Amino acid sequence: MAKELKTQIRIEAAPDQVWDVLTDFEKYPAWNPFIKSLTGQVAVGHTINVRLEPPEGSGMTFKPKVLAMEKNKEFRWLGQLFFKGLFDGEHRFALVDNGDGSTTFLHSERFEGILVPLFNEMIEVNTRNGFEDMNQQLKIRVEGLYK
User: Fold this and answer.
1) Which CDD domains match (predicted)?
2) CA torsion angle for 37, 136, 15, 12 (degrees, to 10)?
C-alpha cells in the first residue's frame, strides 16, 4: 500500500535564499513548527536525527537516511518504522525557480508499507497540517530576511 502527500507554496525569494533558510538546521527550533530538530551529517548516504511534532499529533524522533542533497534544488530522506516495508516514508523538499525572482517550494512524502492504511487519517490531517504550517513559516522567514 502506498500514499503520497503533496503540498507547495510560492515564496517571493530566489531558490538560493530559500535553500539557505531551509538548510540552516540549527535555527529550526526558532521558526519551524513541524520539524523541531534536524541533526547529523546531512550528506547522501548518511543517517540524520529528525524530531517531528505534527499539530495535534504525537511527536516522534527517527533516524532517516539522506537520499539526495542537491544545493538550491532538492533535499530528500527515507525513514522507516522498525524495518523496511512496515511503514516507510520518503520525505522530499524541492525548490523550483519560477524565473521571476520567486521560488515554488514543494514539500511532499511518499508513504509505503503494510501499515499505511492504519495511519491514513494521521497522514491526511496531522501530517498535512504540519507540512502546511512549515511551508507557511518558511515563506514568512525567507521573505522577512530577503525582501
Assistant:
1) SRPBCC_4
2) -150
79 neighbors 88 (Cβ within 8 angstroms): yes
| CATH number, domain containing residue 37 | 3.30.530.20
Structural domains in the chain (count): 1
3-state percent breakdown (helix, strand, coil) of the chain, nearest 5: 30, 40, 30
Q: What is the pLDDT along the chain (147 residues), one digit of tens a residue?
A: 899 999 999 999 999 999 999 999 999 999 999 999 999 999 999 999 999 998 887 889 999 999 999 999 999 999 988 778 889 999 999 999 999 999 999 999 999 999 898 888 889 999 999 999 999 999 999 999 987
